[in-house]
Amino acid sequence: MALSVFEEKPTEKELELALGPALRTWAEIKEYVMSKNLNLIDEWHTSGKKYGWTYRIKDRKRAIIYFIPLEQSFKLGFVLGKKATEKALQSDISTEMKQIIRAAPVYAEGRGFRIDLQEISNMEDIKTLVRIKMEV
Predict the structure, then answer these.
(1) Hey, what CATH topology would domain 12-135 get?
(2) What is the pTM of this model?
(3) Of the candidates 30, 26, 8, which has an alpha carbon nearest to the alpha carbon of residue 16?
């Protein structure tokens, strides 16, 4: 079963219906990230039916953040390289967010982790992670 709720690229209306009230938080995070750099690209992407469609915001080199739509919810995905991980762990993000980062598996690209909408209780944590990802 696909992680994302969509097997095909969704329309704006389909996204709105799937996310429901979670759309407001999705839009807030998207707007924040896009406001950080005029050269960012946002796009829908799929790695196949097994994973479904994800929405990502990237610069020319790498993805900054991934949005994974679910039914009435979503997850955010980050991949932090070594420098970004160190900076995040030294930042003022919450202890809970630091635990998520520490527990994340390490890949060649860095530590990859997902954050459930329910874990986004502190929007400042998300904003800090976005800033760190874009700086490093």
Answers:
(1) Aspartate Aminotransferase, domain 1 (3.90.1150)
(2) 0.91
(3) 26
